[in-house]
Amino acid sequence: MKKIILLIVVIVILVIIGIFTINNNSNNSEETLQQGNIENKENKITTSNEYIREGSEEHRGFILDNTLITTNSEIHFNIHYPENFDKTKQYAIYFANPGWEGLYFQGVGKDLGEPYVYEAQKYNKDMIIVSTQLNDWGEQSANDCIALVEYFLQNYNIDKSKVYISGLSGGGETLSIVLGKRPELFTSALYISSQWDGNLETLSKAKTPLYMVIGENDSYYGSTKTKNAYNNLHKLYEEQGMSDEEIDKLLVLNVKEHEYFTSKGYSDEHAGCGLFAYEENIMNWIFSKSK
Predict the structure, then answer these.
(1) Terminal Cα distance for the chain, rounded
(2) In the chain, how many H helices and how many E strands?
(3) How confident is residue 72, by pLDDT bands cut at 50, 70 and 90?
(4) DSSP letter for each residue of 115-131
């Protein structure tokens, strides 16, 4: 009888120990899970899903075929870093959107045939230069350009008072849409031989300085749409109560006569749109601006 009672006592003790152990392990597991969730949450806050896949080849001071990987797209670009680049130092940044011949499907580095990214270096040696290679000249390219700009502003040591952008030909159409969406990102903008597709009212509220240059008889776009965009934006500024003098500091229209091109060896005005890169008054107007 005593043996039976002893056996029952031992069984009861083992059951109690088992229940305690299960509860303890359960509590530890729950605590570990909670800690894991906290760590994951912290990682989501501090770590972006976006990242850059860096290129390895170089051409004329540019690292070729870098790619910003996002959840929606892959955004290709070529990049120039200033000499003795230091990640702890703040830099100005310039985004150049090339024409149709510089889009990504044309081939890596085809955008680097345009002179603006090289001439810009003369106006600010401490400037990162990003030459985009987007996939079109419309809404998607504008969204990709904005995503690229935002990535650099958030992840690089950028002087946000010196963020510049340009767009040539098809890239000018992209530029206009970008400025119709997020003009506040930029210090100033250069629109080259294109047509305006973006929201002028949004741009007028941000008052981002804009320089517009085109040939009078541009063979691809003509100059009428550019003139209309200038006049409409000028009117929006007038409606805000700004004087002509104040508007002139924000908005410039430079329409080149045909002789400008022929005197420099170009019979086709659109083909000569690279000539403006060598105009000091144009380039200095853009890169001398600061917020």
Answers:
(1) 95
(2) 9, 10
(3) confident
(4) SHHHHGGGT-SSEEEEE
